[in-house]
Every structure is written in structure tokens, then in C-alpha cells.
Design brief:
Elements: E1 3-8, H1 16-29, E2 35-40, H2 47-50, H3 60-64, E3 75-76, E4 82-84, H4 98-102, E5 111-116, H5 122-130, E6 133-138, H6 142-157, E7 162-170, H7 179-186, E8 190-195, H8 198-205, H9 217-229, H10 240-246, H11 254-270
Parallel strand pairs: 1-5, 1-6, 2-4, 2-5, 6-7, 7-8
Antiparallel strand pairs: 3-4
């Protein structure tokens, strides 16, 4: 049975949808997994636009409205994964039926990512209810961190496990909130630290996931996180000895340690 991972953030512009596309593309290409991306931002869906799927005829809105079968709303992409897009213009639907509608898809996919609404409403609650676990995307500023803490609190109230945080658009400036302080305030581990990267915007302009556009520090972080999420080694097992030695050395990035712990926990679950 496939795992459903919700990607959430209670603030727009933090890179949530880009994270969904990048992680999905990495799992499909680098680790040969069967992956589905679902756009659950029902009020303002844009996942399809990130990958160049313009005006899909049948969408998740039609499925939730009972006007189409879910199989008719799933599209193959040229990036190795499938997508269940939303309609840019559509009447309001009942988001709370999402979990029921996608339940049987677990049999077809190894990993299903849900791109949630960035608003504190029924839409984000539907993602939490449909997901086995959550990843929260944030940036290292006080405004976004405040929203992140609200998202973490809500997830804990709904009793949906939070796997970790993605810290995005980092400039490494003194005025930014540190990884240590973010973990302390949220009580959640940071799994990836992505520097501000112009190549992400270039990839978006070409309607493709950043992990398939150009190799950079940010795309490497996505690939490492993708590997940890499925209990595998980065680069399909290459460099195991070097990484093992690094764990006993000083100055190992905290997110690297957190990913190693996540990977080991995944392996225990599989065993």
C-alpha cells in the first residue's frame, strides 16, 4: 500500500507546490517509484501549471463533485509521475471527501503527494485527514514561522504525524531565524535546508520540476530528502561509507542528521 504525504503551509509563496513537484520528480526519476501528485488547493489550484498541464478537461473537482471517475482525472506527465490536477475555475466542492476518493489509489502508487491549500480552512483539513503524514514548508522569517507554528499546532490537534520541516529560500544571513531556533519553537525536525536558488524560478518558467532542470544545492537537498522518505540512500546507495564516516565528524549539518534518522526509521518500518 502506498504512503500518502501531505505538503502543507499556512502562507503562500514559501515554495510548497514547487516542493511537491520536485520531490515527486526525484522519487520517480532517481528512485524509480510510482508517484502521484494531487492538487488539493481547491480554491486556487496551480500544480498543473507548474508542469505545463494547461486546462485539463477532467479534474479532482469533477471527482469530488461526483461527475467523473478518479481514473479519468489522472494524467501521465513527461516527468515520470502522474498528476491529479484541479480546475482553475469551478464551483465550490466538498473537500472533506478527499480521503475517501483517493483511498484506492494507494494500491497503484508507491507515494502520493498532496499539495494542500495555504489557507486555514476546510481545504487544509482535508489534506490532513487524507494523509498518513505531513511535511511543512517554511522560510526562515518571523512572519512565516508564526504561520508554520499554527500549521504544526493544527496538525497535532488532528493527530496527523508531522515528519518534518522543509526550510526554503534561505540566504544564510544573520537576520534569518536559525535552524536551531525553528526546531525549538516548532518541536519538529528540519529535514531539508534549501538556499534561495534562481534555477528554481528558471525551472518554473519552463514548466518543469527543479530537480529535473539543473543540479544545484537546492535540488540535491530535495533528492536527499526524497531518498530518506523511502528509506533509501541518496544516489541509489553510492557513497555509503563516506556518509557513515561523516556522521562521526563534527560540523555535520543538522538536517543531514535528521534525514539519516528518518531513513533508519523508515527501514525499521519496512522490516
Amino acid at each position: 500500500m502506498g504512503k500518502v504525504i501531505g505538503i502543507i503551509a499556512i502562507k503562500g509563496g514559501v515554495g510548497k507546490t514547487s516542493a511537491v513537484a520536485s520531490l515527486g520528480a526525484s522519487l520517480a526519476k532517481d528512485y524509480k517509484k510510482k508517484v502521484l501528485l494531487i492538487d488539493a488547493n481547491f480554491s486556487a489550484p496551480n500544480l498543473a501549471l507548474h508542469i505545463g498541464l494547461m486546462n485539463p478537461e477532467v479534474t479532482i473537482h469533477h471527482v469530488l463533485d461526483g461527475k467523473a471517475k478518479i481514473s479519468d482525472a489522472i494524467y501521465e506527465t513527461g516527468y515520470g509521475f502522474d498528476v491529479l490536477p484541479g480546475s482553475i475555475i469551478y464551483e465550490k466542492v466538498n473537500p472533506m471527501s478527499l480521503a475517501e476518493k483517493i483511498r484506492d489509489l494507494r494500491r497503484r502508487y508507491d507515494v502520493i503527494f498532496i499539495d494542500s491549500s495555504p489557507n486555514l480552512n476546510e481545504e487544509i483539513l482535508s489534506t490532513m485527514m487524507a494523509s498518513d503524514e505531513l511535511i511543512v514548508v517554511t522560510t526562515p522569517d518571523i512572519v512565516t514561522l508564526t504561520s508554520t507554528l499554527r500549521a504544526v499546532k493544527l496538525a497535532k490537534e488532528r493527530k496527523t504525524p508531522i515528519t518534518g520541516l522543509i526550510l526554503n529560500k534561505v540566504y544564510n544571513k544573520k537576520f534569518e531565524i536559525s535552524l536551531k531556533d525553528i526546531e525549538k519553537a516548532s518541536g519538529v525536525s528540519v529535514l531539508a535546508v534549501l538556499p534561495h536558488d534562481i534555477h528554481v524560478l528558471e525551472a518554473l518558467s519552463k514548466n518543469m520540476p527543479s530537480t529535473l532542470h539543473k543540479n544545484s544545492d537546492s535540488t540535491q537537498e530535495y533528492r536527499k530528502l526524497a531518498a530518506s522518505l523511502i528509506g533509501e540512500d541518496y544516489n541509489n546507495g553510492k557513497g555509503k561509507l563516506r556518509r557513515a564516516l561523516n556522521m562521526f565528524m563534527k560540523n555535520v549539518p543538522k538536517q543531514e542528521v535528521n534525514r539519516t534518522i528518518l531513513k533508519e526509521n523508515r527501514l525499521k518500518n519496512y522490516i
